[in-house]
# Entry
Amino acid sequence: MPMFKRLGVKLIAMCGNRNSRLARECDIYISIAVKEEACPYDLAPTASTTATLAMGDALSVALLHKRNFTQEDFAMLHPGGSLGKRLSLKIEEIMIKGDKIPKVNENTSLKDVIIEITSKRLGTTSVVNEEGILTGIITDGDLRRLLEKTMDIKNLKAIDVMTRNPKVIKPEYLASFALQQMENYKITSLIVINDSNKPIGIVHLHDLINLGLQTR
# Structure
C-alpha cells in the first residue's frame, strides 16, 4: 500500500468490511459485503466470492462503456484469443498457397485428378481453364458418388465431373467469415480467388478450427 501511495494513484478497495485496514487505506471503498455465506456453517467463502466476481465484472463493463471500448480494440490488445482471431485474422494470413494449392486443368484425366487430390491431402482440387480461371471444384465426395454410378472412368476428364460455380472467398476477408461460410454451406474448404477469378489459395475447415477460431 505505501508503494502505491508513493506513485500517487487512486486506490479502490473491494471488500466486505468498511472498517478494515484495506478499506481505510484506500481512496474509494466498494462494498461487496454479504449477509452470510452459502456455506451451511457460514465459514467457507462462497457467496462472498461470487459477489467479488460480480462486482469485478460490473466495473469492467462500466469501464468499457466509459472508454467506448470496441470489439476491434479488444482484438488489437488480445490478438491471440479466440475473439481477437475472429476479429482480426484474415484469409491471406492463413491460407494454403503456392504449389500446395490443389489445382488441375479442365482437360486433366480423372486418374490425374485423383492423384492431385490424394497428394495435396485436402480432399478436393480446384479446376481451371486454359487461362487459369477457376471454373469448378472436385471433391473426394464427388468421386465416390461418381463411382457409385459407373466404373467406366478411363475416358473422363475433370470438366466432366467437376461442380461448377464453387463457393469461393477473397483473401482480404476475415478467417472467421470463412468458417461461417463453411458451416452455412456444409463444406470443408473454400477456394481463395483474386480479382481475376484465379485460385491463389485454399482454406480448410480443420486449419481454422486448429487455430482456435469460433463463430459467433
Notes: The longest helix spans residues 47-66. The chain has a mean pLDDT of 90.
